[in-house]
Amino acid sequence: MSRSITSITPALLLAVALFAGGCENMPWNKDKTSDAKKMANEGDKVAVAEIAPAQAASTQPSWGKPAGAITFTQTDGKVRVTGEVTGLSPGKHGIHIHDKGDMSDPALMSVGDHYNPDKHPHGGPSTSPVHAGDLGNLTADASGKATIDLTVDDISIGGKNDILGKPVIIHAKEDDFKTQKPPGNAGARIAGGIIKMKK
């Protein structure tokens, strides 16, 4: 199992886009590249968890209401996890996939523990092996906005360690990547959403 955090600078993205755009317009490459891109994109599986705040009074943050979306894109046996959440307090917040798709409890305790089909210890994105549901921390800026961009190979959309129907949960505090009971010691479950296939 491997996990990696991706960081791409805007300048690099611009250079790649310009190069790709120029190559596509060359006479020897007419239509072939765009057809290949379409086929690759059609082969991707995409699922999304729409994030909403927990309903328990004790978990309602005074700084705002967490909201956003976490997207899971499966390509070639790996799943890229991307997304943005707003309404968080500045700082780090544990983010995990949990075991049960039951979000009926106002404090989100009905979602159970972290999703851990392979019975691994709890850890972080740079340690291995870890719970399949361990996604590390979101780091919110001063405005309460946080992003995630993580690639993993121990979950899937509709295959082994299937995440469809599982909830993504955001915690009040930072995951310490070492505490086993409760995993990560990240505090209250302040927001979450069920992972569903993108329409």
Structure, described:
This protein is α+β, with helices and mostly antiparallel strands. The chain folds into two domains: 34 residues; 153 residues, Superoxide dismutase, copper/zinc binding domain (Immunoglobulin-like, Sandwich), CATH 2.60.40. The chain is built from two helices and nine strands; from the N terminus they run βααββββββββ. It has a nine-stranded antiparallel sheet with strand order 1-7-4-3-2-9-8-5-6. A hairpin with a 2-residue loop joins strand 3 and strand 4.
CATH class of the largest domain: Mainly Beta
Relative helix content: 10-25%
What's the alpha carbon Rg, rounded to whole Å?
18 Å
Distance between the termini: 29 Å
CATH superfamily of the largest domain: Superoxide dismutase, copper/zinc binding domain
Whole-number total of structural domains: 2
CATH architecture of the largest domain: Sandwich
Quaternary class: single chain
* Major sheet size, sense and barrel closure: 9 strands, antiparallel
What is the number of beta strands? 9
Strand order of the largest sheet: 1-7-4-3-2-9-8-5-6
Assign the structural class, choosing from mainly alpha, mainly beta, alpha/beta, alpha+beta, or little secondary structure: alpha+beta
Mean pLDDT: 82
Order of helices and strands: EHHEEEEEEEE
Shape: globular
Strand content: 25-35%
